[in-house]
Amino acid sequence: MLDWLNLHIAYWHWLVLGLLLVTAEIFVSGFVLFWFGLAALLMGILTLAVDLPFTLQLILWAFASIAFVVIWVKSIKPRWKDRTTAGMAYEALVGQVGLVLESNAGKSRGRLKFPAPILGEDEWIFICTEEVAIGDRVRVTDISGNALMVAPH
């Protein structure tokens, strides 16, 4: 069996396997197949340049795959932290300071703007127990439905 594999497995088999694995990553979560595919592409390039026995190709492919996954998990993935605040509505909003664009004088609600968008929006409706003027700074204390509960800052 190994003799047959040594004679019939060519560099392009590795390239096709690599492309299939990298493409399969689109349909699978976890970002692991990509590294096995990248290792297969590496083996395709390596076997194109150097004639290696199939057993050694398998060992190198397994080693490269594991090395890529370890490098991904230990070095690259921690730097890929999600810096968005998606899914953290309460934690993202409470404590933020915004600028009043539309006063709540005579109304129950006003409009404020944050210096940077929070949860995709930079302007929000607010409710404040005190009257605030345009240009005042307010701090978010709570969330009530789609409105922010604020207090003067």
TrEMBL record:
<dbReference type="GO" id="GO:0005886">
    <property type="term" value="C:plasma membrane"/>
</dbReference>
<dbReference type="InterPro" id="IPR002810">
    <property type="entry name" value="NfeD-like_C"/>
</dbReference>
<feature type="transmembrane region" description="Helical">
    <location>
        <begin position="54"/>
        <end position="73"/>
    </location>
</feature>
<feature type="transmembrane region" description="Helical">
    <location>
        <begin position="12"/>
        <end position="42"/>
    </location>
</feature>
<feature type="domain" description="NfeD-like C-terminal">
    <location>
        <begin position="91"/>
        <end position="152"/>
    </location>
</feature>
<keyword id="KW-1133">Transmembrane helix</keyword>
<protein>
    <recommendedName>
        <fullName>NfeD-like C-terminal domain-containing protein</fullName>
    </recommendedName>
</protein>
<dbReference type="InterPro" id="IPR012340">
    <property type="entry name" value="NA-bd_OB-fold"/>
</dbReference>
<dbReference type="Pfam" id="PF01957">
    <property type="entry name" value="NfeD"/>
</dbReference>
<keyword id="KW-0472">Membrane</keyword>
<dbReference type="InterPro" id="IPR052165">
    <property type="entry name" value="Membrane_assoc_protease"/>
</dbReference>
<keyword id="KW-0812">Transmembrane</keyword>
